[in-house]
Amino acid sequence: MNVWYTEDHSPGVRFSIKVEQHLYSGQSDFQKIDILQTTEFGKVLTLDGLVMVTEKDEFIYHDMIVHVPMATNPTIKKVLVIGAGDGGTVRELTKYDSIEQIDMVEIDKMVVDVCMEFIPQTASKLNDPRVNLYYEDGLKFVRSKENAYDLIIVDSTDPFGPGEGLFTREFYGNCYKALHDDGILVNQHESPFYSEDALGMQRAHQRIVGFFPICNVYQAHIPTYPSGHWLFGFASKKFDPIQDLDAAAWNALGLTTKYYNTDIHVGSFALPNYVKEQLQDVE
Q1: Superfamily of domain 3-54
Q2: CA 115, CA 35: separation in Å to the nearest integer?
Q3: What fold is seen in the domain 58-282?
Q4: CA-angle at 207, arms to 231 and 175, nearest 5°
Q5: How many beta carbons lie within 10 A of that of residue 255, not counting itself?
Q6: Cα–Cα distance between 25 and 7 in angstroms, integer?
Q7: With a cut of 70, which residues of the chain have pLDDT below it?
Q8: What is the residue extent of each domain of the chain?
Q9: Would you state the pLDDT for residue 2?
Q10: For the chain, what is the HEC assignment?
Q11: Taking the CA of residue 147 as centre, how many other CA atoms within 13 Å lie in the half-sphere pointing to its CB?
Q12: What's the number of CA atoms in the CB half-sphere (13 Å) around residue 24?
């Protein structure tokens, strides 16, 4: 018997993956959590029926959300990660010996526990001694921080449900306050392709532009995310992600990555015209 997981990517588009086994299903205080063993993408984490991470393509997302800011400012020492319960963002950060502190704030402890059990590929570095885990609301956590971090990575779910507060003007203002004078904010910026996702992307971009003097958007192709065309936001008080990139210094670190390289770093900021138009409409 064929069993398929199906997700609505838009009112007129569905995306399906063949499932071999349903490994886990649970309901936390915040959302429904499932782990699926699939034929093509390996283990898949879904939250409230939406794909969050798969073993096959997670490296694209995690490479791009971490290494772009780290290559822009290789002196980063203190990092705040909000969300990221699967652990992949922390895994990539721990590759940098120069990082001294990683504070990870995840509202749903059950997500972390489930990923540590079923997807060690992403969660294996959550026990690094530099990592401090906080199980609380990221919006509330960042309110109390001022001039505390070199980098904030917002690795959140979509702008509804548990992740809704991480797309507000208040949140981005608090992130600005929590960063050092040369701090960088990177966030998953949704997709520009389907209209509902594009509206969420535009709202987030408009709110970030209101605080940071340097605001850029970059892209990657992630097969299991809606349309496959995914954006990230780069905002900084000082650093320009292209002009301040020191490719030779980053390459000298000798880090192993499956997707990111310094050529892609530069190229990912070259956006299609339709995305440029969407961003200009709200800037």
Answers
A1: Spermidine synthase, tetramerisation domain (2.30.140.10)
A2: 9
A3: Rossmann fold (3.40.50)
A4: 90
A5: 15
A6: 16
A7: 1, 157-167
A8: 3-54, 58-282
A9: 84
A10: CCEEEEEEEECCEEEEEEEEEEEEEEECCCCEEEEEEECCCEEEEEECCEEEEECCCHHHHHHHHHHHHHHHCCCCCEEEEEECCCCHHHHHHCCCCCCCEEEEECCCHHHHHHHHHHCHHHHCCCCCCCEEEECCCHHHHHHCCCCCEEEEEEECCCCCHHHHHHHCHHHHHHHHHHEEEEEEEEEECCCCCCHHHHHHHHHHHHHHHCCCCEEEEEEEECCCCCCCEEEEEEEECCCCCCCCCCHHHHHHCCCCCCCCCHHHHHHCCCCCHHHHHHHHHHC
A11: 1
A12: 21
pLDDT tens digit sequence for 90-121: 999 999 999 999 999 999 999 999 999 999 99
- Any catalytic annotation for residue 86? no
b/e string for 1-23 if b means 16 or more Cβ within 10 A?
Answer: eeeebeeebeeeeebebebeeeb
pLDDT tens string 202-237: 988 999 998 999 999 999 999 999 999 999 999 999
Question: Exposure pattern of 146-172 as b/e (b: 16+ CB <10 Å)?
Answer: eebbbbbbbbbbbbeebbeebbeeebb
Burial of 106 (0-12, 13-18, 19+ CB in 10 A): buried
- Please return the burial class of 72, using the count of CB atoms within 10 Å of its CB with bins 0-12, 13-18 and 19+: buried
- Identify the active-site residue in 57, 103, 155, 197: 155
Q: For residues 208 and 185, what is the distance between their CA atoms, to the nearest angstrom?
A: 9
Rounded Cα distance between 46 and 266, Å, is 31
Q: Name the token pair of 240.
A: 């320009």
List, in sequence order, every residue forming a beta bridge with 22; answer none if it has no partner.
36
**How far, rounded to the nearest angstrom, does the alpha carbon of residue 111 sit from its chain's CA centroid?**
15
Phi, psi of 274 (to 5 degrees): -65, -30
CA-CA distance, 155 to 66, in Å (whole number)? 10
